[in-house]
């Protein structure tokens, strides 16, 4: 059977770049839709982004310039794909829904492909928007898989769970809540590898595919102690109570800091997380039992 052709939208993003690599590694003809630097809202044409695009192309990805807002370009790109993987970022819940609906409309106009929506949980307002997108996706009849991890490694681990930090703590670790609540941390590469496996796996069609390796459950206290072990000394701990964190989120500068703090609030404080789902769920660790996942400790090992 010929390998399915994959189009990744959002391929220069934190998750998207790993999806492109995982798709190429699995031998799929892979295209990546990239916004031109001059496009409104696009990341500046930093040397980092230019280098990333060059690397993806050197590894065999086919570059398509376009924007989710360019319906004709989107349709043309989708016509050349069997599977569309969406890893598009968002600034507001409204934008999130709008982008995804545009992709669905283009898929419908292009023909019949499967959509893998590469979105993880949470932040309450964004979650509400994601649930609306999922309803629309189900109603559209487009065969799809929604891939859900939770927190990807690169988002919080390099800052020891504190979105306001510039990097790992040197003397004091700021810990939201009491630091005991565990959340699921999944490596971007593993999320991407699972997504690419799922795209040709009939067991995942029209389902939510969770990626929840039990060994990757980790609390902020555990995360800080992994760091302490790595740097060989104890850190002071500054605990931020829930009420203080909530006030901080209210007062935080606009997106993305308020969103990142809200994710910490929903994922790492007890009793706040919510991710009501009605769709049929399957679990990657059961579907692909031989797959190994990068643990929090391994990630920190490679970081410092
Ligand atoms: N990172 C996390 O920890 C995390 C956790 C949970 C869920 N997620 C979900 O994963 C998805 C991707 O997140 P991310 O962190 O990888 O995002 P990201 O790093 O902000 O990347 C966003 C990507 O989307 C592209 N993009 C944005 N608007 C576009 C448009 N109008 N047309 C075409 N491309 C557009 C960006 O292109 P430019 O380079 O041109 O800007 C970039 O490639 C989101 O749904 C997010 O909610 C992420």
From TrEMBL:
Cited InterPro entries: NAD(P)-bd_dom_sf, NmrA-like, NmrA-type/Isoflavone_red_sf
Domain (NmrA-like): residue spans on this chain: 3-300
Transmembrane segments: none
Pfam families, A to Z: NmrA
Top-level taxonomic group: Eukaryota
The name this protein goes by in its record: NmrA-like domain-containing protein
